[in-house]
Every structure is written in structure tokens, then in C-alpha cells.
Task: structure prediction
Amino acid sequence: MGHHGECIAPHHELPGLMPRTQESIPLITRKTAALALAARIRPRGLAVVSAPIARLARRALICTLMLPLLAGCPSTQPLPTAAPVQEFTVRDTQAKYYLYVPSRYSPERPWPLIVLCHGTNPYDSAWLEMKEWAGFAEQRGIIIAAPRLVGTRGDFPPDPDEQLRRQRQDERTILGVVAAVQAAYNVAPERIFLHGWSAGAYAVLHTGLRHPDIFRALGIRQGNFDARYMNDASANLDPWQQVYVYYGLSDLIREQSEAAIAWLRDHGMYVDEYQVTGYHRRLPPSLAWDYFKELADTRPWIRVSAAPSDYRNPRAVSFSIRAAPEATDARWSFGDGAEAAGLSQVHEYAEDGTYTVVARVRIANGKWFRRTLRVAVPRPSLGLESGATR
Result:
């Protein structure tokens, strides 16, 4: 990456520009050119051209000059030597992913897992995410995984249909990574997090919001955002899933981070926002991990699920609860007038329809919490609603 004061000169003719010799074109700095083009000011030495062609040339040059700033700088963190970085393949999508497990790992206790979603190649990648996080993960005792994704282009993103196709493929990759790591290691189910930088936000929002039963919280650092890419994610939002968005005050895509926050809040999600000084760049992993850890240490994690109880009886639904701290009791209202007590229940509905189920859950510290979900019968599908806490 060049220095901000590095001088550049055009070496190639742009369509519509009169050819000139190298000596006749004045040198301009990256910063001067970007500011001049953004203000629609023609730098001295450029010939007058037709307006449409000039606009195209301006856009192309702005993209070229600003991409390094948008992308940030590559990670320079050394990899830890205490344990190796492993490489695996997700069977479903054939995507590669890197995995780091701390050297002191022991299956005797559950460990946190963070899945890292990289930004735009070549400015960011799964490998650069691993380099950025592995040393920190070794120190703090975190399992980290970094898959190679296809839907994380922030410079020239595709149309919505193609982007959604790529996000769905990334979703299968990310879920495959989580499943494989859970099968091989003792992972704490209430401490699985999804984090992304820049265009990695596309994957975080699509996959993370669609699977609140898997991802305790989502972290987005200086993220790209486009509401047109949120169609799949908006169908099943869980207001109890925390989202953390942090970005630089001088970030060139700050407006996209703010747009993501506004969209999430407009859709009933609780978002924690944090601003740092500076522009689009790599930030210490501790900014994300400290948030995740405090959340897991201080706020209860309660997941109420519904599933078919007996496929021979499509109106029978099985209800269960997972919680940290551990759930000790529950009171159920099934939405059809019936009620029950106990942590797990099987309820048979008399008629097809969609029912609002309320579960009041007591956890180990003695406090009660309320969770609400919608269940479609005869084929139970989970939909979550906001519930009051008591």
C-alpha cells in the first residue's frame, strides 16, 4: 500500500481523453486527485471531454484511488507458534477454512468459538483474518475459524439476486464450519459468535440473523451494508440476539455502518454501537472479544425451540429450553388455552394453525424471563417475537 503523499501519474489513456505525453501531465497526489474528483473539479492538465465519458472516467479513477483506503491495511500480526493453524474443507460447499485451537485446549471444559468473515479480496481474506486473530485467540483461550467466502465483495458488489445466491452459499459454508468444529471439540453452545470486517458484514448479517439458535451475538467492524441483500435475513429475526457494530468516525463507509444499525433497530433488533477515532482499518480483536465475553458473562442466554414430536402425528409438537445459566423451571402457555409446567413439554394441538407460545423460564439465579415464539401446525417452524423480561 502506498503512502498518502505518494505521487502518481496516469500511464494509460482513458477513453475520451486526448493523448498527451508523459511530460505534459502534471503529477498529482492520491489525496488531491480524490478530493478534486469528488468535488467534480477537473485537475489541471486533463483535456476537456464529453460529460458522460468524463463521469465514467471519474468513477473509475475514484474507485482506483480509494480502494486501498476502503480496504484498510493487511494484518501484520505474527502467527502463534504454540499450536498450528489447520486447514479443512467444508464437504457441502467444498470451501476451505482455517482453524486455530489454542495450545492449552482441553475437552474437560467447553470453549468459545468465533467464526471470522473476511472482507474484500485481495485486501482481506480468510488467511489474513486468521493472522489477525490467532495470537489473540491463543492468549485468551478462544477457538477461531475463518472460512473462504464468495459473497463478501465490497468494491463491486453484484446485483441483489446474485448476491443473495452467494450469501446462501456462504451460509452453508459457515454452518458447515460450526458443525465440524462442534463435532471435533467441546464448544460452549452459548458462546458461539460470528464476526466480520467490511464486506464480511454481508455474511454476518445474512447467516447470523437467520440462525439465532446458533450464534449468541454478531459483531460487525466497519461493515458494508445494502438493504436489498437483507431479504432472507428479515424473515426470522430474534430480538434477543445481540448485534455489535463498531466503526471509525472518519470511516469512508461510515454511512453504511449507520444504515445497518438503523435497519436493525427498525426491525426490532437491539444493537450496541461503538465509535472509534480514525478511518477504515484493522482494529484490535479485543474490541470484539471484550464485548462478546461481557455479554456471555453477564446476560442470560435462553433459547426456546419447537420441533415435530412424532412424524406420524403432525399436530404433536415438542418444546425444549436451553439456557445459561442453567434453566431450573418453566411455565408454558401454548396459545390454544392449554398450559403446562416443566422444562420440556410435548403438546398436541387439536387444529391446524399458527399459535403464539409463551414460555416463562426460571434460571439458576432465581430470576424469571419471558420468551415468546410462534408455532405453525402441522409443521412446526420457529418464529420469534420480542418478550418482556421480569
The longest strand covers residues 313-324. The chain has three domains: 7-71, 85-298, 301-385. The two ends are 53 Å apart (CA to CA). The helical segments are 30-38, 51-71, 126-140, 160-184, 200-210, 254-266, 286-298.
